[in-house]
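Please, structure for the following, as tokens.
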Amino acid sequence: MTADRRKRHLKILELISTRAIRTQEELAEALAAEGWEVTQSSVSRDIAALRLVKADGTYRRPLPGAAVADPDERRIAEGVLTAEPAGGSLVVVHTPPGEANRVAVALDRLAWPDVVGTIAGDDTIFLAVKDEPAQRRVLRRMRRLASG
């Protein structure tokens, strides 16, 4: 995935989490208002790639599977938009606006052995991990939780 596409996906997730978007056309207009040049077909592909669903007539992220029983794991499953490696010992996690601290607290409580520490902002978390193999394990685990 290109960096621009990833940024556009993050913007789409932010838009649908902060306002009611009912149609692909509304989403394309909202993206255009934010400076993104998109077509209806690219918006349609983005919706499919993000696996967005319609609930009560608006686009939303799919609910994670009910199999996640631990409340901290559920917080991660519901709050993580993306998790990407940065260098060999850092994972950058994006969340909806205002959710990073809650997800970071959940990660801290879970005390995964590969995670050395967390720093949370408004919608971004930096996870320091022990090494590259730990980074891969953390990314796999986070993506598995986020995919439900």
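The radius of gyration is 16 Å. Residues 3-18 form the longest helix (16 residues).
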